[in-house]
TrEMBL record:
<comment type="similarity">
    <text>Belongs to the binding-protein-dependent transport system permease family.</text>
</comment>
<feature type="transmembrane region" description="Helical">
    <location>
        <begin position="12"/>
        <end position="31"/>
    </location>
</feature>
<feature type="transmembrane region" description="Helical">
    <location>
        <begin position="71"/>
        <end position="90"/>
    </location>
</feature>
<feature type="transmembrane region" description="Helical">
    <location>
        <begin position="223"/>
        <end position="244"/>
    </location>
</feature>
<feature type="domain" description="ABC transmembrane type-1">
    <location>
        <begin position="64"/>
        <end position="248"/>
    </location>
</feature>
<feature type="transmembrane region" description="Helical">
    <location>
        <begin position="129"/>
        <end position="148"/>
    </location>
</feature>
<keyword id="KW-0812">Transmembrane</keyword>
<dbReference type="GO" id="GO:0005886">
    <property type="term" value="C:plasma membrane"/>
</dbReference>
<keyword id="KW-0472">Membrane</keyword>
<keyword id="KW-1003">Cell membrane</keyword>
<protein>
    <submittedName>
        <fullName>NitT/TauT family transport system permease protein</fullName>
    </submittedName>
</protein>
<dbReference type="InterPro" id="IPR035906">
    <property type="entry name" value="MetI-like_sf"/>
</dbReference>
<feature type="transmembrane region" description="Helical">
    <location>
        <begin position="102"/>
        <end position="123"/>
    </location>
</feature>
<dbReference type="GO" id="GO:0055085">
    <property type="term" value="P:transmembrane transport"/>
</dbReference>
<keyword id="KW-0813">Transport</keyword>
<dbReference type="Pfam" id="PF00528">
    <property type="entry name" value="BPD_transp_1"/>
</dbReference>
<dbReference type="InterPro" id="IPR000515">
    <property type="entry name" value="MetI-like"/>
</dbReference>
Length: 258
């Protein structure tokens, strides 16, 4: 009971902290607007109104949904493949050694290079999804492999002493430890997927938020540019507050019981 109360108070405090940071960002934004003028930084209130206009318009909301679908599809595909391969490499020293140069190569490859390759392979439609997949896969793979290799062996021995099945040991003993290492890489990969998909859309697609940014750039429309950015960042903050943080509290709850 007390633990849940502290968790609730902690979540409230985290929410107030996030709100305070947002207010601080808008305060500096207002100062930048008054200092440099609307061509460099538009008025925050006008940008917020433009965000509302974009969401209320069918094409604006459709662009946001298209970008969300691409980012989530690429991210979820990378999660499935990366977790499976990471588990295999974590339990195999040979695969772990062989995978290191490949992971280093994939992490060192800039997203813009993957976008060019994807354009040659898939054309405009498949480029954003593939780019998200190939740029987030190494992080998820490395996080999963690290979780397997860094798990507490004493807990495995304790589970073996109770003679539980391998499936039960994995679900109740090993998986929570693996997820605690995987989650930071998973959250980072999710945020990265949005940046990558918007970049791919900016260069290779005729729809999505990236295409909206490209259109705003052509029209030299700073307000629309900032409105698209605010819409995406706001969506990410909502997802973090209502999805990622509760999941993190749940998957790391075992640490409080140890």
């Amino acid at each position: 009971m007390i633990r849940h109360l502290f968790a609730f108070v902690g979540s409230l405090w985290s929410g107030w902290t996030t709100l305070s940071v947002i207010c601080l960002v808008f305060a500096f934004w207002q100062i930048g607007f008054e200092t440099f003028g609307p061509l460099v930084l538009p008025e925050p209130l006008e940008t917020i109104k433009t965000v509302g206009t974009l969401i209320s318009e069918s094409h604006g909301l459709n662009y946001i949904l298209i970008t969300s679908e691409r980012a989530l599809l690429g991210f979820l595909t990378a999660s499935c493949v990366g977790i499976i391969l990471g588990l295999m490499a974590g339990w195999s020293n040979t695969l772990s050694v062989l995978s290191r140069p490949l992971v280093t190569m994939m992490q060192g490859m800039p997203p813009i290079a993957w976008i060019v390759i994807a354009l040659l392979w898939f054309g405009g439609e498949g480029t954003p999804i593939f780019t998200v997949f190939v740029t987030t896969l190494p992080l998820i793979f490395a996080g999963t492999m690290q979780g397997v290799r860094m798990r507490d062996g004493n807990l495995d021995e304790m589970a073996d002493s109770f003679r539980i099945s391998r499936a039960e040991k994995f679900i109740h003993v090993q998986a929570p430890q693996i997820v605690s290492y995987l989650f930071p890489a998973w959250a980072t990969s999710f945020a990265m997927s949005w940046k990558v998909v918007m970049t791919a859309e900016l260069l290779a697609s005729g729809d999505g938020v990236g295409a909206g940014l490209a259109e705003a750039r052509v029209n030299i429309d700073t307000v629309a540019t900032m409105a698209w950015i605010v819409a995406v960042v706001g969506l990410l903050l909502l997802f973090e507050g209502f999805v990622l943080n509760p999941v993190k509290s749940h998957v790391e709850g075992w640490k409080n019981d140890v």
